[in-house]
């Protein structure tokens, strides 16, 4: 029984959804009393865990799994598929830079830096399809006569 533990203890004890309920219902704790309030929160935490387990079992059933040995295999294969999907995403990222050799070199050096534990040294240009902004027309603006050509270009 938690008897109004501070939120730091609650963070380690309950999932976020139950923590949100706890914060919402904390003002009613004086009405219920500490023991009843703790029972209320514990029952909702148990309900949350049961619902999560039911969803997991329903996923197994939808996949045609009927025993826990098959479920372990299914979970392992699911994890492997997710890892492979992430690798394919990374491959597609590489392929978008393959046509431009300088961008490819920048990407490769960034990956080498990441692999060695360093922060990337060269930012990779974004290929979001967005055009760069046209240069500003500074003619007639006050103070532009004080700028040299390089400053106007910037």
From TrEMBL:
Gene Ontology BP terms: chromatin remodeling; regulation of transcription by RNA polymerase II
GO molecular function, one term: chromatin binding
GO cellular component: nucleus; SAGA-type complex
Domain of life: Eukaryota
Region (Disordered): 115-154
Name used for this protein in its record: TAD2A protein
Gene from which this protein is expressed: Tada2a_0
């Amino acid at each position: 029984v938690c008897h109004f533990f501070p939120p730091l203890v609650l963070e380690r004890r309950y999932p976020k959804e139950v923590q949100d309920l706890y914060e919402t219902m904390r003002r009613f704790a004086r009405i219920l009393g500490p023991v009843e309030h703790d029972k209320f929160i514990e029952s909702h935490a148990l309900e949350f865990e049961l619902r999560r387990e039911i969803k997991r079992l329903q996923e197994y059933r939808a996949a045609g799994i009927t025993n826990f040995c098959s479920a372990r295999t299914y979970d392992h294969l699911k994890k492997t598929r997710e890892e492979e999907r992430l690798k394919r995403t990374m491959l597609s990222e590489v392929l978008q830079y393959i046509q431009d050799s300088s961008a490819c070199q920048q990407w490769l050096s960034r990956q080498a830096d990441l692999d060695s534990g360093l922060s990337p040294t060269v930012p990779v240009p974004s290929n979001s399809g967005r055009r760069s902004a046209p240069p500003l027309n500074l003619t007639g603006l006050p103070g532009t006569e004080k700028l040299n050509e390089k400053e106007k270009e910037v």
